[in-house]
Amino acid sequence: MSNDDKQNKTHRLILMPSGRKGDVPHGITLLDAARSLGVELEAICGGRQTCGRCQVVHERGTFAKHGITSGDDHLSAPGENEIAYAAAHDIDLSQRRLACAAQVIGDVLISVPPESQAHKQVVRKDARDITIRLDPAVRLVYVEVEPAEMDGVSDWQRLQAALASQWDLTDVTIDHVVLIDLQQALRDGDWALTVTLWKNREVIRVMPGYVDELIGLAVDVGSTTIAGYLCDLLSGRIIATESMMNPQIRYGEDLMSRVSYGNTEPQGVNRLNRAVIKAINDLARAVTDKAEIDSRSITDSVLVGNTVMHHLLLGIDPVQLGAAPFALAISDTLDLNARDLGLSAFHPAAKAHILPCIAGHVGADNVAVLLAELPNLDDHVTLIVDIGTNAEILLGNRDRLLSASSPTGPAFEGAQILHGQRAAAGAIERVRIDVEEGTTRYKTVGDDRWSDQVAEGESLTATGICGSGIIEIVGELFLNRLIDSTGLFADDADQRHPAVRQTGRIKEFVLVSGTQTAAGSEIVVTQNDIRQIQLAKGALYAGVRLLMDRLGVDHVDRIKLAGAFGSYIDPFYAMLIGLIPDCELENVEPVGNAAGDGARIALLNVSQREIARQESRKVDYVETAIEPDFQAYFVDAMDLPHQSDPFPHLVDYLPPRQPRSSRSTRRHRRA
């Protein structure tokens, strides 16, 4: 390749987990390329290859979703300085590179570890105070064992006799890895032991003397976020919580992309499995480090996730979930040895319980939500929506409960939005537009001030728009009649607000000027951004409408918004754009990470595991993918808030409905 060709050539760069992508010049360093795409990396040394803060991971393989192959030779070879730094700091350059040294010479997909990100991810999955009757699957018993004598009785037999005589526990077995430690523990404790029992039938830990520590971990394995809740199983209290991005996101932002990756890459399923197992191990170490205890103190755990996460956690190829009839390998509960899953951070004999799945696209996380929110015990018709890349829906009451899954896609996570991003510091999360004043104000994650409250000389730097922000923007544009119910900018929108401008044949809204952003460029909301939100909310509403039909109701009494994203949506704006059906606004309630709460309930009370199993079998599942009415409901739900469904609780805010002929003409012109 000539120097002129190199100078003009560009390559596709994909940056995970942010999802930012773009074409960058041949030979540019990863550090400069990332910055050009609005992704800031730590680089204290200013790119001199001396601080090592900008380490990134070069992901290799074919990524069909992004349309690239990220090859070994698509980054420049390490130079002398990088090799010297790696040798001095024990860095494997086949796994990690310094972004300030590596040059882009081909299409490449890069993962940026959390420690290398200048703007660390803000993950919002906090635990709620809920009442749980304490009855864990594991318990502690203290025993005093008869010392060994010349009678041929083994140490294990002596412990069995002590358990029987002192605790009336018979037919107890012992895990092999615990048996290895038994003799030394007996002698270190002067023949007194604290034994950890699982379901009163298996010894899974022995500790010399008297010990009163019993630790468990509840884990919600989300497709975007993994959240862990470290619990004291003696008191039921949460000791510490920790969350992290699911590293599988580098292989696909949505579930079907990961199914496809596992199906098309020879080692795809293994990579996806190893990634999530490593993440749970890292999470366990992080949450126990926060509590200043050893992660090997974890003796019991409960794990939940959607069906694809469930299968990948188990190392099962989820390919059958990608096409009808969407068959699960297993839907029942599982009690496993944590070590068999590869959970090496836990105690070697720790247990892992996995809640049941309901159907091909409604998983154990939805069962956990059922445990936490108990719509099956309520007389009122309750709608529970866990909004993510795949929205899971529960609808019903004590008489009947239905579930479904709707493919909302990653738009609510900031993907497919021009300036979208996840909820990191600097992401715009609240927006207000004033047509009379011609102003726009906003709030960003990590700052309580509105943009018009910033003192002179200070700044409120915006980096992009997160999910709650894009919902409010669309809602505000509609509320102020800058867009109509079809989502199109009004003909006179650019005359009514100075932030609306014409770009070619379409209009867009300038949310933030270039002087107020981290990268120095504008943050705008395009017609396509609005359409992506319409597509996502339309899919969710269509799923809800199908369930309402099946249940035979034309309204819901209560709505609960679950999940990290659902917790930060303003119910008014969610209803205004038609993300959820009409309801008394005071009866729309964010419930936090209900899946994590359900996992914690099952961790702290063993009988809840059987209740979950029984109740999951009573739920009627509706497969939206094969429902003949889904497409019609989806098309109707594309409008704001809806083409025909009434929203009486928003009557004071909604413009008059357009005549059908006018609406049809606009659609024809758009097509």
3D structure, described in words:
The chain has four domains: 3-116, Roll (Ubiquitin-like (UB roll)); 138-208, Ubiquitin-like (UB roll), CATH 3.10.20.880; 374-408 and 536-670, Nucleotidyltransferase, domain 5 (2-Layer Sandwich), CATH 3.30.420; 412-532, no CATH class. 29% of the residues lie in helices and 23% in strands. It is built from 19 helices and 29 strands. Strand 18 (382-386) and strand 19 (391-396) form a beta hairpin. The longest helix has 25 residues, at 527-551. It is globular and about 100 Å long.
What would the principal axes of the Cα set say about the shape? globular
The rounded Rg comes to 27 Å
* The number of domains: 4
Share of helical residues: 25-40%
CATH architecture of the largest domain: 2-Layer Sandwich
Class of secondary structure makeup: alpha/beta
Structure annotation, total helices:
19
Largest sheet: 6 strands, mixed
Unreliable stretches (pLDDT < 50, length at least 5) are 660-671
The CATH class designation of the largest domain is Alpha Beta
Distance between the termini: 43 Å
Strand order of the largest sheet: 14-13-12-15-17-16
Rounded average pLDDT? 89
Number of strands: 29
What would the CATH topology of the largest domain be?
Nucleotidyltransferase, domain 5
Q: Give the DSSP E fraction (strand runs of 2 or more residues).
A: 15-25%
